[in-house]
Specification:
This protein has 316 residues and is of the alpha/beta class. Helices cover 38% and strands 28% of the residues. It is globular, with a radius of gyration of 23 Å.
Length: 316
């Protein structure tokens, strides 16, 4: 068993995973500095979970290499598992056990017993706001409380690194914010966190990011670096009564980097927002679309992600 000591919690080089003729992860390379929150973004089926499962030693790569906390994912998977925590989207909890019983079970799984287990349970109950709920059946908890308990079971052994796979999927926005507050506390304490998500607002709070699409990395860097390097053009936000008419109408002009729907609004990426402001308004009104407002806004990560993916598709 060989551990390489350096400043990176994860080093992945050309990681590839094929299932028959389908390539789920395609020559992915990245590093995660120790103590960072690293966001791994992409739509469902992009390769996020497959990448994590390879790093955890649960899937053998078709090719490529990686280390986690200095340990080789092929040779030292057992050593890696002792030092990491993992929380899946489905919350690996036993619903017929009480809150305290889940903590006891996972503590025993990781070899946490006696006084240390009591201290860790007290810490987790306080951190997650679950004091007084120790004897409540887990199946009776709301989604937000189950989420916090699942995080507690993942950190009961004080891991050096956490892998969180879509941990906020299906959880209400208030619970999502509370959960991220807990992640910030853990990161400030030195825990490295790799989190997969498709919520772009969450990604804004990560220190570094990687976008993955169809198994390939699209871009990497801090949120600010990615916006600066990947966003070619500025964003006009169009508030109108018929986005379903506006989007194909604007796309047919062939003048814009991107035209996409964001909630009830249309985002137009353009190199010349001043000139195109009037044009957009006129073209849409000629189509019978009532325009309430057109505003220049700062690009969101979702704007950048869509623009990056579209550019990659054009170049391949």
């Amino acid at each position: 068993m060989e551990q390489r000591l350096n400043n990176h919690a994860v080093e992945a080089h050309e990681l590839t995973k094929q299932f028959d003729r389908f390539t789920a992860v395609d020559h992915v390379s990245f590093t995660i500095p120790r103590g960072q929150i690293f966001g791994f973004l992409g739509p469902n089926g992009a390769g996020k979970t497959t990448t994590i499962r390879m790093l955890l030693g649960l899937l053998k790569p078709t090719s490529g290499t990686a280390t986690v906390l200095g340990f080789d994912i092929l040779k030292d998977s057992e050593e890696i598992r002792k030092r990491i925590g993992y929380m899946s989207q489905k919350f690996s909890l036993y619903n017929d056990l009480k809150v305290e019983e889940n903590l006891n079970f996972y503590g025993g799984t990781y070899g946490v017993r006696g006084e240390r287990l009591r201290e860790r349970k007290d810490y987790i109950l306080d951190m997650a706001g679950l004091e007084g709920r120790e004897r409540e059946l887990t199946k009776n908890l709301s989604g937000g409380w189950k989420q916090r308990l699942a995080l507690g079971t993942a950190i009961i052994h004080e891991p050096e690194m956490l892998f969180l796979d879509e941990p906020t999927a299906g959880v209400d926005p208030i619970s999502r914010r509370a959960f991220w507050s807990l992640l910030y506390e853990l990161a400030e304490g030195g825990t490295t966190i790799m989190v997969t998500t498709h919520y772009m607002d969450e990604a804004e709070h990560c220190q570094s990011l990687a976008f993955i699409q169809r198994g390939r990395l699209v871009t990497m860097g801090s949120p600010q670096e990615i916006k600066a390097s990947e966003m070619r053009g500025q964003v006009l936000e169009v508030d109108c009564d018929s986005p379903d008419v506006a989007i194909p109408t604007l796309r047919q002009l062939g003048l814009f980097e991107e035209v996409a729907l964001y909630g009830a609004l249309v985002h137009v990426v353009t190199q010349d927002p001043d000139a195109h402001h009037t044009l957009i308004e006129q073209v849409l009104r000629d189509k019978g679309v009532q325009v309430t407002a057109i505003d220049r806004i700062a690009p969101s990560l979702e704007d950048v992600f869509i623009a990056s993916v579209r550019r990659q598709e054009r170049e391949t």
